[in-house]
Amino acid sequence: MSERDAPGREEARTDGGLGDLAESEQAREKWMLRDDEFLLEEDREYVLRDEGRSWTDYVSPVLFGAVVAVMLGDVVTTGVGMAMGLDEANPIAAVVIREAGLGGLVLVKAMAAVFLVGLSGLTGNSRQTFRAGGAVYLFVGLAVVAANVWAILAVA
After folding, report:
1. Contact, 86 vs 149, CB < 8 A?
2. Counting Cβ atoms within 10 Å, is residue 120 exposed (0-12), middle (13-18) or buried (19+)?
3. What is the pLDDT of residues 55-89, one digit of tens each?
4. How far is the C-alpha of 106 from the C-alpha of 56, rounded, in Å?
5. How far apart are CA 84 and CA 86, in angstroms?
6. Given this model, what pLDDT does residue 28 score?
7. Do 119 and 133 touch, CB atoms closer than 8 A?
């Protein structure tokens, strides 16, 4: 028995572990050989190319639309409530509204949406982070809109 036939010895693969995918042009565009200088030959492997991600890759349009709708609902109900003589309960929003009006509140809501998308893009599992953050925002936002509607109906 030769060294080549010894049990436990595997043949060196010339395709880098891709198998039949090594023949595909599309696979070669999507995968690249991780060929760092410090790696031993047996540790070199094909990994997905990181060509950068767009926020559209992990943001659900339905969830993002629902978040924006809740944000708009909060702005509208806040505006209606303030026109009826109610005060803003959130001290930060109260300062923004006092200094910049409802336009400032819209700006704060837009910054919150950008923060939600941006923070999700920085995590290892962007889609899951966006879903969790969006769900929390929807829960809190719906509670705020419901409280605004309740206060408006109580005054009306």
Report:
1. no
2. buried
3. 777 788 899 999 999 999 999 999 999 999 999 99
4. 23
5. 6
6. 54
7. yes
Q: Cα 64 to the chain's mean position, in Å?
A: 10
Structure tokens at 52: 């950068």
CB atoms near residue 95 (< 10 Å): 12
d(CA 153, CA 125): 42
pLDDT per residue as tens digits for the range 105-131: 999 999 999 999 888 888 778 888 889
Whole-number Å distance between alpha carbons of 67 and 131: 11
- For 26-30, 123-127, 152-156, which range has the lowest pLDDT when averaged over its residues? 26-30
What mean pLDDT value characterizes the chain?
78
Three-state SS annotation for the chain? CCHHHCCCCCCCCCCCCCHHHHHCHHHHHHEEEECCCCCCHHHCEEEECCCCCCHHHCCCHHHHHHHHHHHHHHHHHHHHHHHCCCCCCCHHHHHHHHHHHHHHHHHHHHHHHHHHHHHHHCCCCHHHHHHHHHHHHHHHHHHHHHHHHHHHHHHC
What is the residue extent of each domain of the chain?
Answer: 3-48, 55-155
Above 70 in pLDDT, residue 3? no
